[in-house]
Here is the input.
Amino acid sequence: MNTKLYFTTFLLTLTVSTYADYWTQKADLPGIGRADGCGFAIGSKGYIGTGFTSGYTKDWYEYDPSTNSWLQKADYGGQPSVENSSFTIGNYGYIFPAPTGLDFWQFDPIANTWTQQASFLGQQRQAAVSWSINGKGYICSGASSSLGTSMDDLWEYDPLANTWAQKTSLPGTARHYAAGFFVGGKGYIGTGYSTVTGGSLSDFWEWDQQSDTWTQKTSFPGGPRWEATGFNIGNYGYMGTGYNPSPTSMIWKYDPLTDSWTPIAVFGGGVRVENVSFSIGNLGYLGTGWDGVNFRFDFWEYHPEDSTTSVNELQVSSFGLQVYPNPASEYAVISLQPTAGKNIGITITDVMGKKVYVAHLETKASSFQLPISNFPGGIYLIEVTNGKEKAVKKFLKE
Here is the structure.
């Protein structure tokens, strides 16, 4: 068999606004790196603070995407804390501190002040999941102080009455270090670590605010993990990073309408646990945390796919293109039907539209193994042509 392979590298500059599903590094959080901080978005600004550096902290910072700049604000009103619960309701942010204390605080970004609200009625806890839905805030799961016992209870905060009420507990395994987000009138929680089972989890649950009921959904596809992160953009949720069992960088998008998960571009900052994430408008943000060696202060912006910029697969051929494994790390195998012919063109592009691999194969072989170990992590498109027909497949490089 005579196989000729021609490899060419192209330098191609394109306007990034016409593409999607990528991460861009933004200005670093001031000060030193931290893990297990908390944060939220209020209007057009983002906020990050507290957490662990050389000890527990209470400093607080505001991020302005329009200027890509940070401004230090008034310190969090409670004691230095770590693994807090936080959410936004209207024009205010709220923090329930951990690992000890039942005090609960409201942040006013206009006045730059913290005001103590009604004390939490549940047990002291850390590493819980929190969201806000339709003007109310929620805290679910967590662990008792010193991570002694995992919990499954759910609590609702009403800012108008300044009161707490217990709701239906999570029916799945009690847990802490879980991740979650909200989409529409529903909250989601999954993964985490449980003292009940003595291991990490991958199950995933939906809570309906209107009926106060839980429904188990499709498990998180990245496998059991803890100290992951979650945020929402529009009608989708996003979850990833965390220990599995070492720090990871992959993130998946969840579609509540189809109860399905799709991998997105690998987080640009590398492996990460104990980070902070939130969304502003139609963009996601993720930063700080621990990479297994260092506390981090870097901060990244995520541009998702949408109806006008999505990276779609195309199949207008009869040669049955398949790409596996997916995700891949060292090699990607391209498989074709034997009827594809012997003159095969292969082009690989990244999500920015840059061609990273171009080859022409003069062979009747039905599969080809391409080395991709030197590719940066992320989503790529493989386009295969045989002169008359074309097919495109998406694959993820771990």
In short: Confidence is low (pLDDT under 50) at residues 1-19. Residues 52 and 109 are 23 Å apart (CA to CA).
